[in-house]
Amino acid sequence: MTAYPTVKMFINGAWITSGEAGTMDVVNPATGAVLGPCPKASTSQLDAALAAAGNAFAGWSSTSGAERYAILRRAADLLRERADTIARVITAEMGKPRAQAVGEITTACDVIDFLGEEAKRRGGRLIPTRGSALIAQMVTHEPIGPSVLLTPWNFPVNLPAKKIAGALAAGCTAIFKPAENTPASAQLLVECFVDAGLPGGVLNLVHGDPGPIAEYLIASPITRKVSFTGSTAVGKQLGALAASHMKRFTPELGGHAPVIVSQHADLDRAVAMCAATKFRNAGQVCVSPTRFLVAREVYDRFVAEFASRASALKVGDPGLDDNVDMGPLAHGRRIAAMEQVVADAGGNRGEVVTGGSVIQGSGFFFQPTVIANPAPGSRFMTEEPFGPIAGIVPFDTIDEAVGIANSLRYGLAAYAFSADLDEAHYLGRSLRAGMVGINQLIVSSPETPFGGIGDSGFGSEGGEEGYLAFTDTKLVMLAKAGG
Known about the structure:
Blueprint (H helix, E strand, L loop, with lengths): L8 E3 L2 E3 L6 E5 L6 E6 L3 H19 L3 H17 L1 H12 L3 H24 L3 E3 L6 E10 L3 E4 L7 H13 L3 E4 L5 H13 L7 E3 L4 H10 L5 E5 L2 H13 L3 E5 L4 E5 L5 H12 L10 E7 H16 L20 H12 L7 E4 L14 E4 L6 H4 L6 E7 L2 H8 L7 E5 L3 H10 L4 E4 L24 H6 L2 E9 L4
Parallel strand pairs: 7-8, 7-10, 8-9, 10-11, 12-13, 12-17, 13-16, 15-16, 17-18
Antiparallel strand pairs: 1-2, 3-4, 5-6, 6-19, 14-15
Helix pairs in contact: 2-4, 2-5, 2-6, 3-4, 3-6, 4-5, 9-10
């Protein structure tokens, strides 16, 4: 990246560089340097975005599914063409290694394609009638209305792409508020939709302080749907606000994913996959494998090999070196959170096998860290670390492992490794999570639903569920005229 883009908002078909509520700095987490200013929307600018989405809804919702698909497909093609440039902006804004940023964009393109196709496929269904007086019983899925889309910084293109594509494919208009530290990544995504021919007012982009903006947009009578990805604590607050206004709400919240490694697992494969995946995006992934529950028969070997792989990871500034394995944490608050988790692991509460310290110098870097046998009540075992810290716990029976895995209110993703087919099926049935991976750590694809249960939220994005989440179910019962 030779220059950081001028950050703008997009309201009613026009790009706006001036934020009436001032500006905020966007910081490179690898260096601590300011990349540039980001405008902050005033309430009058938020009102303009709401009005634009409200006014555009009638026209966009009546646009044919084939036309909506064509625009979304073109947007995905433009995103593919611009992937290298956008990837470097992602790296600058939140520290993701370039290869991972490119992979995120590639996945986002496929998600947009799939959800665009849903606009052509979704025609509803006919239900057979019980008597001759009724001619037909028809069920359709109608666009719910203007939607507010609130996204975090850890996947600044893929997560917005799921929400935007789901809303637009279903015929909804949207106001999109991205994370305050990744505004340019979001802007470059929106540019793809605009350049693909999206009508003015259908998609609006605003920036600013997340709490006040979310509360203002949700409370508006124009808003009919809210989709939020972020922390459990904030999700509960926004969910309560949405419920008070009878707004549909889809939250995808925190996770603390367990990984059960059976004595019957292919241990070499399990260790390699777990160590590589755990530290992807510096562990700042909601479905990141985090609590490793390992059969006592293979526990010592797993700890040694996992720690060896963790300590060998190349950590550095991904803006200077495309070959680093792990970049910085997103901001200084994440460093403080990692230090608190490690400090709680002393004495008989867990052993830090490798890592455990801040990497000195500029930026927000923390060592890949492995904690052996963290105590059941420790901070690590009860709170989502959302960073490059893994904990490894021995177990004696599969039922014990399942009990530990299911002991928290989180329920986003869970994983298990076992070459015993009966055991693998048992684990798939028994693990309490919205998504379960057996002998692999991928629980997301464009065609499949993505979502959790418990304190990890409810509802799904991606797959056909990602389209239906932006619709109301409507029944039409048609009888003969005159009975």
